[in-house]
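All the exercises in this workshop are built on plain-text protein records. Sequence and backbone structure share a record, each on its own labelled line. The structure tokens are whole numbers drawn from a learned vocabulary of backbone shapes. The record below serves as our worked example for the rest of this section.
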Amino acid sequence: MTLVSGRRHDIHCRTMLHAKFLGHLEFTLNDHPLPLPEGRPLEWLVFVASSATGRHHAELEALFGVDGRGFLPNLPVWCADALEFTDEGVRFTGSSDVGAYRSLEGDLKALARLRGEFAPGLTSSDAAFQTWLEVERFALRKVFLSALLHNGAGLIESGRIAEGEKNLSFVERERVSLPAGFAAELNLELARVHWRLNRPDRAVTELEDAMPNLNPERRLEAQVNLSAALLRLGRIGDAVTALRTLAASGASRGWGLVHRANALRFGDDLERAVRDAGEAFQIASLEEDGYLAVAALNVQGEAFLEMAQIAGTAPKDAVIAFGKALGISEVLGEDASAMTLAGLAHAHAVWGNQQKALKQAERAFKRARAAKDSSATVRGLLALYAVTRIGSFARNALNKARAMQHKPLELLASLCVLEKDPSTELRFSAREIALGFGSERWLTRLEDSR
């Protein structure tokens, strides 16, 4: 309820009370400006009214030295009923443009209409409040930059490359003016966008820039993503090194182990890859994390499959691992099962179960395309080639892997294509990738494909 001239108004008037912070500091009732206090009372009012959920008494005491009611005698009369006091704290009962702005996260056009500096012109001699004020300004600025970033990615994906790159460049320029913590968060968002746009090299740059300014939990997330990006670039040793130490527990450690195992299976340590993936699966079981379980079993299955092919034995362990993963992924949804089905199909093809393998490979490819999962699509094509030996499947996989800048998949596809087309140029490019892996195994496979 809103109090004006000592009288209470009905609840409908509450919605007419509005706080404007962006571009201009003003409180209004029915679009009419209300008188504002000065000095510390104004700072207190800004702090309270800018929060949609209110402020705890402890927060107010820490920043202003008094609890929620401490400044009430120094505030204009309209504030008495514009503020709701409880035992926990105090809340502004009107609306605010800051609240609306935060609710529009991701909507670039709407954000642009509301955009403006938070409480412009307001400064404080109190260092703690001034710090809060600057952090709030940077946080709201980051909301806009994040929306601009993802809008740019969407434009690039739709073919409007010049417009999209302009947005990304603007964000990259603006980032340098942000404090280190906010800039690091934008680094992470830029890395995700570059990953989405199949630019692992640029994702690596953003992640490496972010790492020094992240807290331990966010740093581990960045480590995992860095390892995945380095793996795509074929930098297997660097991908493993990025996750050499995993100072974490629970699901965070599990995902780190999965990505390390995935890098190891392209190197020379398949047994360690199996162990890391197995530990990740145990963590997934304890945490009841189905997605982690599927990822761990998929990596383990791929490692078992490679080991069976090297030894010339039936890939029984691979079929068991992929079978477990499929049972879990079918519960999670079809999107989660494409990669698993592709691996299982390939394992059955190696084992000689051609009819079953073909059905699974076709389902894997169909699901991967429906989910727009590029990696699973390539894996599905490789499974189809393993079953049918039709060269166009391998060639299509090679083209898609190159478009993704995914060196491991490119090498796997190249080995398949070389079985049908012993091109000197392709053999040379595949050898360059294999050398980058630092593994004799891949060089040997290239020699065997002659």
About this structure: The longest strand covers residues 17-20.
